[in-house]
Design a protein that fits this description.
Elements lengths: L2 H18 L9 H38 L2 E6 L7 H14 L3 E6 L2 H12 L12 E7 L7 H11 L3 E4 L2 H43 L1 H9 L4 H40 L4 H10 L5 H37 L5
Antiparallel strand pairs: 1-3, 1-4, 2-3
Length: about 325
């Protein structure tokens, strides 16, 4: 046998050995791609839920702070009532009260804009029996005596009423807190579903490569070595899927915030902004999305590790004694 022939045989033998070497977990398979898509969807839903919870919580805090800053005097039209004089009188009564920082009329144009979403553009306020408003700015550290102001208004202007918004805002805040609780529960369910998907995917990968795992384990491969192979594989899968879902959620939030900013001048947007702000989740919201991405990847790796360790422990328990 010549040296060239011997070298060729050695190369062929090495090539055959390399073909026999394959990773415990196949890097590319249909189940892996499906899991990546599932993780991306779950991360997107988790991020959207977290963003919605953050938005509602911030809005609720804004409502609570507004309770201590403003009140409204409403004057209903009546026969023989000079509305402009009544507005001036209401402003004077409110401004004289202790704890009131100022009072101002809501002019005709602003009143028309408030009614535009329901009655359309081009309203003539003088032709409609529309109540007029006075906005009272109060000192949050020195609340005025609302009952005294109501009594003075009732005497001077029988059709006037004072609303400190406390009842309505308390209801809205309670509703917002309930929505935050529901959102947190939904977020927990989504993360739980993600963990279960990873468990099933890990078990599927182990079932497909069970003979390899058993041979490696019984010939002396440590459980942590086998678990590491699965953990690294699914950690990479989780990071890819979570990053895709997180980026999609961040893009969705940025798109909604941009749309909201471009439509701030419309009456519909003004009403929406009064309830939900500018639909921007802010820096904290985006940090939360990043944390969701990291948490999803860590949960994926940790769940895989525990699943593999449990499988190997069960494998050891089924091994005959002395076998």
């Amino acid at each position: 046998m010549t040296d060239a022939t011997a070298d060729r045989l050695v190369v062929q033998s090495v090539a055959r050995d390399r073909r026999r070497v394959s990773p415990i977990v196949p890097p590319h398979n249909l189940a892996g791609k499906a899991l990546l898509i599932v993780i991306a969807i779950m991360t997107f839903l988790s991020s959207v839920t977290l963003g919605a919870v953050s938005l509602v919580r911030d809005t609720a805090m804004t409502w609570e702070s507004q309770i201590a800053r403003e009140a409204t005097i409403q004057i209903k039209p009546a026969d023989g009532l000079d509305m402009e004089s009544a507005l001036e009188r209401a402003v004077a009564i409110a401004a004289e009260a202790d704890g009131v920082l100022g009072a101002r009329q809501v002019d005709r144009e602003a009143t028309a804009r408030l009614l535009e979403p329901w009655l359309g553009a081009g309203l003539n306020i003088d032709e409609l029996p529309v109540p007029r408003l006075v906005i009272v700015t109060i000192d949050p550290n020195d609340q005025p005596d609302f009952e005294s102001i109501r009594a003075q208004l009732k005497t001077a202007l029988p059709t006037a009423s004072l609303d400190d918004h406390r009842t309505w805002v308390d209801r809205l805040v309670a509703m917002a807190r309930a929505m935050v609780g529901i959102g947190v529960s939904v977020l927990g369910l989504i993360l739980t579903a993600t963990v279960l998907c990873v468990v099933f995917a890990t078990r599927g990968a182990m079932a497909g490569n069970g003979h390899i795992i058993e041979v490696l384990h019984f010939v002396g491969a440590e459980g942590r070595f086998i678990a590491r192979q699965f953990r690294v594989h699914f950690l990479i899968t989780g990071m890819k899927g979570a990053a895709a879902g997180g980026l999609a959620a961040a893009a969705a939030f940025a798109g909604v915030a941009y749309w909201s900013a471009r439509n701030m001048a419309t009456p519909e947007a003004d009403q929406a902004a009064a309830l939900f702000g500018n639909f921007s989740i802010g820096l904290n919201g985006y940090v939360g999305v990043a944390l969701i991405v990291v948490l999803t990847a860590i949960l994926t790796a940790a769940t895989t590790h525990l699943t593999v360790v449990t499988y190997l422990t069960d494998l050891d328990s089924r091994q005959p004694e002395g076998g």
